[in-house]
Design goal:
With 192 residues, this protein is mainly alpha-helical. The protein is 50% helix and 7% strand. The longest helix is centred in the middle third of the chain and has 25 residues.
């Protein structure tokens, strides 16, 4: 189920590219780039700037890849794809558990960015051909992480980007009460 508010401002990825550039290019020499295939992060080298490349021009992919970038520390941002592993579709139960643990924080930030942009959000379990996935439980875990971020503070770059999105898309800042209300009582009971 996609969760989010609608914005009266259309959702076009070139706007995300401009917002990201305005927020981060000067201080971090990093650009958000629409890719033709799978997403990745490319540190500067052949080009004089780092690239956060999102998949196929998809709005949600851009938000997701920015979330990963907002979490990655300085050393990680010097490595291709932040030096992380990625096990493709077809993961077994142990690999899926590791995937969900690694994705909890970035997907919580993606959810925040979606709220700030007024665009729908749905967790990605990204394992169509592998072990059975408990999507409601993962949604609950991501929601818990989002709540923790709102209550305890966001990574600095995530805060900057989320605030810029909320301003551009004319969305209210997601406070704790609004975050708690994202998962209805019925959804809570089906995820336990």
């Amino acid at each position: 189920m996609a969760i989010g508010l609608c914005s009266s401002v259309p959702h076009h990825y070139p706007d995300l590219i401009r917002i990201f550039d305005k927020c981060f290019y000067t201080d971090y020499k990093t650009r958000l780039v629409a890719g033709d295939d799978e997403p990745f992060y490319q540190p500067a080298g052949e080009l004089p700037y780092h690239q956060v490349v999102f998949a196929h021009g998809f709005f949600a992919s851009a938000l997701h890849e920015v979330a990963h970038w907002c979490i990655a520390g300085e050393k990680r941002r010097q490595q291709f794809d932040y030096g992380y592993w990625y096990e493709p579709d077809g993961r077994d139960a142990v690999q899926q558990e590791q995937f969900e643990q690694a994705e909890r924080k970035p997907q919580a930030l993606e959810w925040l960015f979606s709220l700030c942009a007024g665009s729908p959000f749905q967790v990605s379990v990204d394992n169509l051909g592998g072990a059975e996935v408990d999507r409601p439980a993962f949604t609950r875990a991501v929601h818990e992480q989002l709540t923790a971020y709102i209550l305890n503070g966001l990574p600095e770059r995530a805060q900057v980007f989320a605030r810029a999105l909320a301003a551009y898309y004319v969305q209210p800042w997601p406070d704790a009460q609004r975050i708690r209300g994202l998962i209805t009582t019925k959804e809570r009971s089906t995820t336990r």
